[in-house]
Design goal:
The complex is a heterodimer of chains A (about 290) and B (about 290).
Chain A: E1 4-9, H1 17-30, E2 35-39, H2 47-51, E3 54-68, H3 78-82, E4 88-90, E5 94-96, H4 106-110, E6 116-131, E7 134-141, H5 149-156, E8 164-168, H6 175-181, E9 186-191, H7 195-211, E10 215-222, H8 228-235, E11 240-245, H9 248-255, H10 264-286
Parallel strand pairs in A: 1-8, 1-9, 2-7, 2-8, 9-10, 10-11
Antiparallel strand pairs in A: 3-6, 4-5, 6-7
Helix pairs in contact in A: 1-10, 5-6
Chain B: E1 2-7, H1 15-26, E2 29-33, H2 41-45, E3 48-59, E4 62-63, H3 73-77, E5 83-85, E6 91-93, H4 103-107, E7 113-114, E8 117-128, E9 131-138, H5 145-163, E10 167-171, H6 178-184, E11 189-194, H7 198-213, E12 218-223, H8 229-239, E13 244-250, H9 254-261, H10 273-291
Parallel strand pairs in B: 1-10, 1-11, 2-9, 2-10, 11-12, 12-13
Antiparallel strand pairs in B: 3-8, 4-7, 5-6, 8-9
The chains are: A alpha/beta (about 290), B alpha/beta (about 290).
Chain lengths: ~290, ~290
Amino acid sequence: MSSFTVAIASGKGGTGKTTVAVNLAALLAERGVAVQYLDGDVEEPNGHLFLKPALETSEAVGLPVPVIDADKCTACGRCAEVCEFNALVVLKRAMVFPELCHGCGGCVTACPAGAIREEPRAVGVVETGRAGAILFAQGRMNVGEAMAPPVIRALKRARADGALVLLDTPPGTACPVVAAARDADYVLLVTEPTPFGLHDLRLAVELMRRLERPFGVVINRAGSGDDAVNRFCREAHIPVLAEIPDDRAAAEAYSRGELMNGLPGFQQALDRLSERILSEMSEKVRA
Amino acid sequence: MKELVVISGKGGTGKTSVTASFAALAGRAVLADCDVDAADLHLLLRPDIRRRESFHAGHAAVIRRASCTGCGACAAACRFDAIRAADGGTFRVDAAGCEGCGVCVRVCPAQAVDFPERVAGEWYVSDTRHGPMVHARLEPGGENSGKLVARVREEARAVGRAAGYDWLLVDGPPGIGCPVIASLTGASRVLVVTEPTLSGAHDLERVLGLARHFNVPALVCVNKWDINPAQTEAIERRVSALGARLAGRIRYDRAATQALLAGRSIVEGPPGEAAADLRALWNAVTNDVRKER
C-alpha cells in the first residue's frame, strides 16, 4: 500500500505553511487518520517546534562525491570535461570541489583510468519520530551547504506506507520546491491577501501547472488585506479551499509554538480543509 | 560602495518592506532584488525596465522519441529519478527532475538524448524613484537560482560603481541555501530581519551561523516585536552570543499594511510607529556600517 502525499507550498514565505500543516496533522490524527508530517523546509525546519516530537532515528544524508586515486589519475581532463557543475578541475592531477558536486556519478564512469571512486559527503540529516499518534520526520540541511534537494529527496524516502503524508515545503518557486512537490498527489498553496501574497501565488500556480499537480488555495489572515487574491482565484478557476481569519490570538499562539486548538474561525477552516483532503485521497484510492 | 544585504532565514518576516523603506531613506542607492524566485520589491518600487536580458544556465536533457530504442540505459544511470517510461516502450525526461548532469546523454547507445541550454530566467536593469534597480525573474521551477543571484549582484555593483553610488541595498531570499549564500558573500553587512516567534528565533540561529561561516558581519532587528515582547527579549539576549549586533526593533503597525496595499514603502506611507522605527533602524545600520569592524 502506498501513501497519499499532500504538499503544503506557498511561493511567498511566512504565509502560514507550517501553521496549516501541523494543525492539519493534529486534527487528522485526532480523527483517527494515520497521518505523517514531513518537514521538507530543510533550510529552516520549524514543524518540530509545534509538534514537539520524540525523535527516534537520525540518519546523515550523504551525497556521493568523487575521490581521486592519485596513483591512477593520468590528468587526462575527461572528468572535468563531463562535469556540468565545475566540481572538478584538472591541472597536474584532478582536483575535486566537493561543495559544487551534485552527486551525479558522471565522472566515475567517464574516467578512462578507473581513478575515481565515490564517498558520501554529509550534507544534512533526516530524523524520524512520533508526536503522539502523528508520525514525524524532518530534514535538516547543514549550515553552509548550498543544495537543499538532496536532503529533501532523502526525507521523502522516509514516507510511511499507507499514511496520509503532509509535506511541508520550502517557500519560493525554485528547485527545492520542485524536489518536494513534483510527485505530490495534491498541493495546498497557502497565501495571504496582500499584493506580495498575490504576486507570489501567481508564480506558485504557474509552477504547479508546469508540474501538472492538482492544487487548491488556502487564504491565511483573511480580512487583513484586500480581495485581490479571491478575485484572481475566481477568474482563474482555482478552488479556494479555506479562508483562515486574521486573528491576533492566532499570531500569539504561533509565536509561542502552540497549536491553534480551540480558536473557532481557525477550527472551521481546518475542518473544511481536512474534509477536502480526505475526499481527494479517497478519490485517488478509487481511481 | 557599501553593500547591505537584508535576509531573514524564515520567510515573511518583512525583508522587502525593510529594504524598500531603506531605499527611500538612503537618498542615493542602487537596489538589487536577489529573491529571484519570489521577487516582490518591484511591487513597491515600480521599476521602469531599461534593459532586459535572458539568463541561460545549465542544460536539460530531452529524449528524441523517434530515436529512442527503449533500452533503459538512461533510466538506470540517472540518479535524480528524472527519467520515466513513455508510450511504446520508450523513455522521456521529466524536466522537473532533471538536474542537467548529462549522464544520460553519454550513456545512451542510440545518441537519442539532446542537451539544449536551459533558459533559466530573465534579469533587468531599471529606474525607480529611489535609484537604479537590478532585479530578475527565475523561471518557475528553475535551477541555478544562485547563479542568477550572482548575476544580479554583479550587475548592480557595476551600475553602482559606474555612477559613484554610496550604497548597494540588497533584498535577499529566505532560507540558508545557495541563493542566500550567493546574496551575502563579500557584503559589507547583512541585516537579519526576524520576528518574535519561536520559529523566528530558531531560524535566526541558523542564518547567523551562515553569516559567521562566510565571515559577513551581521546586524539583527526584530519586526513586529510587540506581538510577543518576551520572545523579543529572548531573541535579543541571544544575538551577541551568535556573533551579531542588535540594530533595532519595529513595532506592529496597521499603517504598514496600508502602505503595502497602496504599493508604497512604509516610510512613504501614512505616518506611524513602524515608519518611525524604520528611520531609527536605518540610522543605526548606517552608523554601524560606517564604523567598520
